[in-house]
Design a protein that fits this description.
This protein has 452 residues and is α/β, with parallel strands linked by helices. It has 16 helices and nine strands. Strand 5, helix 9 and strand 6 form a beta-alpha-beta unit. The radius of gyration is 30 Å and the shape is elongated.
Length: 452
């Protein structure tokens, strides 16, 4: 009986699955460097904010400085994820990359504000971020789109390692599970709705107040819908993109003004909301001051959710002006986080489970070369013994020969079950131990003559 064509099939039977391409062992060192609104002054965070339109050029620069990675830049964080052969060198390179974002910053001036993570902590952090646990508005869903776009941009730029892509996909999958099973997905809020709630708290009833909404992107749309829910009935829209502004204005049934008329429109504005992706302030303190001079005794409420900030922060010092920024919303979110502690606790358990599952899958991928070599060695031994045994027994029917074949395959599979489980759960140390115990030699060279 010819057994030579069965080795690959039996190896798959022993492992219990189709074996995917192996991942290089030296590409599992995850690294992260970043700034966020919880740990850094806003002026530092906004200096490294990267608008979507500039992401490609920054990814190209990241490839030059650190060999590639993924950049996640949102209203409350800018983080760079990567993998490195040398973790310490990789972290230094990521920190050096941050120095290049502002363009004219002295080397190292951001380093005191940049946090870093390595290894498993990177995965745990990303799973938390993607689930909305590190968002200003706890559990908000916008982060899903932002993480997805960051991954897509890195893929298009060719700066993402396969193992890093796997981690991001795993985090996205798990975040949907977290929102569904923990309760974070129920009654969820966004930065926009949180901001409008705060506006209502300080300004009172929004009905009858003239609202100027600056920005018609995703955040602008969410803000407009929140305004309607909270009773605002007099909304004026403006955007650098006349087309997007027109679409939002039509949805709201509101008038639209040219972007260049913002300053002249402030005189009649009670509530100013800004949410653009501009890299410099859109509204100066002088423009706000001039508007307030024409309306003594009439207050103005400003909600600035842009990053970098759209409104000069000096505007908060003008009499009659109340300025609400992301920093205030962050503080408010922290105060109310305890109200959803049960959902947060459930979310953390699901995140821990998700990270564990991801590590198990990744460790399995890392162990597959050893599993293949071990399977080939044991299968060769099984085949030799079966052929010798059947050759010494006369008169066996085909049915009996097949029974012996099945019995020995089953026996080998049972013997290998524990070593394979050990390999897939323990990673590099297990692979080394199994290689020594079974005298496998250098993985990939064993049984080369048997490869078909």
């Amino acid at each position: 009986m010819d057994y030579s064509g069965k080795r690959a099939e039996i190896c798959l039977m022993m492992s219990g699955q189709t074996i995917p391409p192996a991942v290089s062992l030296n590409k599992l060192n995850f690294i992260l460097a970043g700034l966020n609104i919880e740990r850094s002054p806003v002026e530092f965070l906004e200096s490294v904010a990267i608008p979507t339109r500039s992401l490609k050029e920054h990814l190209e620069r990241l490839a030059t400085h650190a060999g590639g990675g993924i950049i996640l830049s949102t209203c409350n964080r800018t983080e760079v994820y990567g993998v490195a052969d040398d973790v310490e060198a990789g972290i230094r390179q990521l920190k050096g990359f941050f120095d290049t974002i502002p363009g004219n910053a002295p080397a190292g001036y951001l380093h005191d504000h940049v946090y870093t993570l390595t290894g498993d902590d990177v995965a745990t952090h990303l799973f938390n971020v993607t689930s909305g646990l590190h968002s200003i508005a706890l559990g908000e869903s916008q982060i899903l789109g932002q993480v997805t776009r960051a991954l897509q941009a890195a893929g298009e730029a060719g700066t993402v390692e396969p193992v890093l892509s796997r981690m991001f996909h795993a985090a996205l999958r798990n975040s949907r599970r977290v929102r569904k099973e923990s309760g974070l997905g129920r009654n969820r809020v966004s930065i926009s709705s949180l901001g409008v709630q705060e506006l209502q708290r300080v300004a009172g009833d929004l009905e009858g107040l003239r609202v100027l909404l600056v920005g018609a992107g995703e955040t602008g749309k969410l803000t407009a819908r929140a305004l309607r829910r909270y009773g605002a009935d007099d909304i004026v829209v403006t955007s650098r993109s006349m087309n997007r502004g027109s679409i939002l204005a039509e949805e709201l049934g509101s008038p639209q003004i040219p972007f260049e008329q913002i300053s002249s429109s402030l005189n009649a504005t009670d509530v100013l909301i800004t949410c653009t992706a501009a890299t410099d302030p859109v509204i100066s303190a002088d423009a706000v001051r001039a508007a307030m001079a024409t309306r003594p005794g009439r207050p103005m409420y400003i909600l600035d959710v842009g990053m970098p900030r759209d409104v000069d922060p000096a505007s908060s010092e003008i009499d009659g002006v109340t300025l609400i920024s992301l920093s205030e919303l962050q503080a408010k979110s922290e105060r109310h986080r305890g109200l959803r502690e049960e959902a947060v606790s459930k979310a953390r358990v699901l995140i821990e489970d998700g990270v564990r599952r991801f590590k198990e899958r990744l460790t399995g991928l890392e162990s597959e070369p050893v599993i293949r070599t071990l399977g080939a060695r044991i299968e060769r031994m099984r085949r030799e013994e079966v052929e010798q045994t059947l050759g010494r027994i006369d008169g066996l029917t085909d049915e009996q020969s097949v029974a012996v074949e099945k019995m020995t395959v089953s026996l080998v599979r049972r013997i290998l079950a524990d070593p394979i489980s050990f390999l897939r759960s323990e990673g590099d140390s297990a692979a080394e131990a199994v290689q020594k115990v079974f005298a496998l030699g250098k993985v990939g060279e064993e049984d080369e003559d048997d490869v078909e």
